[in-house]
Specification:
The complex is a heterodimer of chains A (about 260) and B (about 280). Chain A contains eight helices and ten strands. In chain A, a hairpin with a 3-residue loop joins β1 and β2. The model of chain A has no long low-confidence stretch (mean pLDDT about 90). Chain B has two domains: about 100 residues, Nucleotidyltransferase, domain 5, CATH 3.30.420.40; about 140 residues, Nucleotidyltransferase, domain 5 (2-Layer Sandwich). Chain B has eight helices and ten strands. In chain B, β6 and β7 form a beta hairpin. The longest helix of chain B is centred in the last third of the chain and has 20 residues. The C terminus of chain B is likely disordered. Classes of the chains: A alpha/beta (about 260), B alpha/beta (about 280). At the A-B interface, α5 of A face α5 of B.
């Protein structure tokens, strides 16, 4: 029996997956604190508990994400682009384009028939181009992220945001709320603005179908719908979209061990 | 003859009254609230009181700033760019470049013989405007007004790696908790904003004299950071906030003199200083 872990330490969320050979036996997502090392340790503790691992079991760990260096117990550090591609390829082998909507930024990746990365682009580190924009406005509307999606889905007249900046968007949302614009129209407006930003990023790498959406943004059905209508394509969604990159890291750990044994 | 300039900015409302010799008779500043119209009236009333004048004594009033359409008693509205360029030229006749750091935008203007000849501006991204400092200062729990003094104590500049204001807000708090000195972080914030504004300004050929205005120019640390990034001397008006309002008042004078009839009487316009209403009252 061989155990492989992938830990994806992001700026907002820390994600982890344990593979027993090829099968996912545990996964975990927590909010990243300011102490990346503590987040990494917390993820490992919870993953091993969920997988029922004991002290004697050897766990091969690969780390990825902006906090990968803080995963001191990892034997391997892997590129997040490669990990996302590997994770997606293991779930949807036919995928040719991946859109990873994270909190800090959005990444668009092109894959060839073997699942190898042929091109990618990353949004500028701007809150209006990633999931953070949704968080900022949800905070103004005083709704949690789940309700935000539900609200947006109900809107018939989404508002148009005048700027592409999350800070100015925040002021704009406050003004709209005080003007009596329904919350659902503001929420749907945010999804639209974000979808338009993401779609221009995806077009840069010449999208080819099938296209997969993963990352925390893929938890928002209304965002997916807005993006589908922008891209004029159906999007595939993994069962737990947030752990896709961590899964790819675990696969990288497995690949490294297999390579060594050869 | 008296003239007034009213500048309703996103953060502050400014009114100045001048006489025919361009001398300042009153200067009033107040925060811009959600009720522009009411505020414009209030600030104007204060300015009149300070100058010991009545509304009817003012020959011409020019409104500017993003709230300029909400000044019911103004005789004309003009863009903040024209008013700013004019204001800078009145204060520094040899000025060729003006950089205005506002609460919601940043503008760089090229001036020739007192007239605006070219400009670039950023009102799309908060990270290149005064809002960047406002948001990050709030995250650190310090007053915007104290930032300049705090940064003067800096022994080093902490590099702020986030481009976006939203992420920088988080980063500065993390830097503080990691043990970086507050003054060094604040110096880093000034440097980050100055870097972005100078990149914007370089799209125009920067020529001396360079004048810095707007709320950002009230921050000594910010002025120092701009000097460093641009690599040239920078002049700052005594009260940088009222540059646009001064320009508006001077333009009011010019328009009034140009449109006056042969007896020197300016075109009369009925004007009342009262709360404006969106509805037309019907006569009974």
């Amino acid at each position: 029996m061989r155990w492989f872990a992938g830990i994806d330490l992001g700026s907002a969320y820390s994600k982890g997956v344990i593979l027993k050979d090829v099968e996912i036996v545990a996964s975990h997502v927590v909010r990243s604190g300011s102490d990346y090392r503590a987040s990494a340790e917390a993820i490992r503790m919870e993953l091993t508990r969920r997988a029922g691992l004991s002290q004697e079991d050897t766990l091969h760990v690969a780390a990825t994400g902006s906090g990968a260096d803080s995963v001191t117990f990892a034997g391997l550090k892997a590129s997040d682009i490669v990990c996302t591609a590997r994770g997606v390829n293991s779930i949807f082998p036919q995928a040719r384009t991946v859109v990873d909507v994270a909190n800090l930024s959005t990444r668009a990746i092109r894959l060839d028939a073997d699942g190898t990365v042929t091109n990618f682009t990353v949004s500028e580190r701007c809150a209006a181009g990633g999931g953070r924009f949704i968080e900022v406005i949800a905070n103004i509307l005083r709704v949690d992220l789940v309700d935000f999606g539900r609200l947006a889905a109900r809107s018939e007249h989404p508002i148009e945001f005048g700027t592409g900046c999350a800070v100015f968007g925040e002021s704009e949302a406050i003004t709209r709320v005080s003007e009596g614009v329904p919350k659902e129209d503001i929420a749907a407006g945010v999804n639209r603005a974000l979808a338009s930003r993401i779609s221009s990023l995806v077009r840069k790498i010449r999208m080819e179908e099938p296209c997969v959406i993963c990352g925390g943004g893929a938890l928002h059905k209304a965002l997916i719908q807005a993006l589908e209508s922008e891209l004029k394509a159906d999007l595939l969604v993994p069962p737990i979209p947030q752990i896709t990159t961590a899964l790819g890291a675990a696969i990288s750990a497995r690949a490294a061990v297999t390579e060594e044994m050869r | 003859m008296y003239y007034a300039g009213v500048d309703i900015g996103s953060t502050m409302t400014k009114v100045v009254i001048i006489d025919g010799g361009d001398d300042l008779l009153s200067v009033i500043k107040g925060p811009t609230g959600p009720e522009h119209r009411q505020l414009a009236n209030q600030v104007m009333a204060q300015a009149l009181e300070q100058a010991n004048l009545q509304i009817g004594d003012i020959s011409f009033i020019v409104a500017t700033g993003y709230g300029r359409v909400n000044v019911p008693f103004a005789d004309r509205q003009m863009t903040e760019l024209s008013c700013h360029a004019r204001g800078v030229s009145v204060l520094f006749p040899d000025a060729r470049t003006a950089i205005d750091i506002g609460g919601q935008d940043a503008k760089c203007m090229k001036i020739d013989a007192g007239r605006l000849v070219n400009f670039v501006m950023n009102d799309k991204c908060a990270a290149g405007t005064g809002r960047f400092l406002e948001v990050t200062a709030a995250a650190l729990g310090i007053n915007l007004e104290d930032m300049g003094d705090i940064s003067l104590r800096a022994t080093d500049q902490v590099q702020i790696s986030s481009l976006c204001t939203v992420f920088a807000q988080q980063e500065v708090v993390a830097l503080l908790s990691r043990g970086e000195k507050l003054e060094n972080i604040v110096a880093g914030m000034h440097s980050a904003l100055a870097g972005r504004i100078s990149t914007l300004a370089r799209r125009l050929a920067i020529e001396p004299r360079v004048v810095l205005t707007g709320g950002g120019a009230k921050n000594t640390g910010m002025v120092e950071a701009m000097r460093e990034k641009l690599g040239c001397a920078i002049s700052v008006p005594e009260e940088p906030l009222i540059t646009g309002a001064i320009g508006a008042a001077v333009l009011a004078k010019e328009i009034c003199l140009k449109t006056a009839d042969e007896h020197g009487t300016p075109p009369a316009k009925p004007r009342r200083l009262e709360k404006a209403t969106f509805f037309i009252e019907e006569n009974p």
